[in-house]
Design a protein that fits this description.
Structural class: alpha+beta
Oligomer: single chain
CATH topology: Maf protein
Order of helices and strands: HEEHEEEHH
Shape: globular
CATH architecture: Alpha-Beta Complex
Largest sheet: 5 strands, antiparallel
Number of strands: 5
CATH class: Alpha Beta
Distance between the termini: 20 Å
Number of helices: 4
Strand order of the largest sheet: 2-1-3-4-5
Length: 184
């Protein structure tokens, strides 16, 4: 997030002294992002950015969707999430493995205005994991974006950020921030 929003001061929850777990029980990525943003806003009363994203697989009725982090159970490992996904997809043939990543980024202003920036990247689920995903991004090892032969986990960060759902949503957010004046 900090790389994508270069030129704007970005402070993480931890850096702001907030270490609470925020309940993500919304039915859309936007709802979950707004819940997170509102939770933090109620403590800091400042400009707040929060996001939520996940993997949606067409053959699984767009699961795991908003449950991507809990797909294999609460506190499951990244590997367990990948294993469950590949097990659920074991009988899905090559041409039917369509999927998309979706991300919603919410910006709250100190006067309570909400701005939402979202995007998707379409692709397919690989038959096996490839590459080494970053922590908490397990699906990157099995998601191949349209027009690519590599999974997100196999791509350099700059390449992935330029085409990923989160990168695209945050690019929209940055373009908006670049057009407004935020008082210090």
């Amino acid at each position: 997030m900090k790389k994508i929003l270069a030129g704007h001061e970005v402070v993480s929850m931890a850096e702001a002294g907030i270490h609470d777990d925020i309940v993500e029980d919304g039915v859309t990525f936007e709802e979950n992002a707004l819940k997170k943003a509102t939770f933090i806003f109620n403590r800091l009363k400042s400009w707040i950015i929060a996001d939520d994203s996940g993997l949606c697989i067409e053959a699984l009725d767009n699961a795991p969707g908003v449950y991507s982090a809990r797909w294999a159970g609460e506190n499951s490992s990244d590997q367990a999430k990948v294993d469950k996904t590949l097990m659920e997809m074991k009988d899905v043939p090559e041409g039917k493995r369509g999927a998309f990543f979706e991300s919603a980024a919410v910006l709250l202003s100190p006067d309570g205005k909400e701005y939402v920036f979202s995007d998707r990247v379409y692709g397919k689920i690989a038959l096996a994991p490839h590459g080494t995903p970053l922590s908490k991004l397990p699906y990157d090892s099995i998601f191949i974006p349209e027009g690519c032969e590599q999974t997100f986990a196999e791509m350099p960060a700059e390449v992935k950020n330029a085409m990923s759902h989160r990168g695209l949503a945050f690019k929209k957010l940055k373009e908006f921030l670049d057009t407004i004046e935020i008082p210090l």
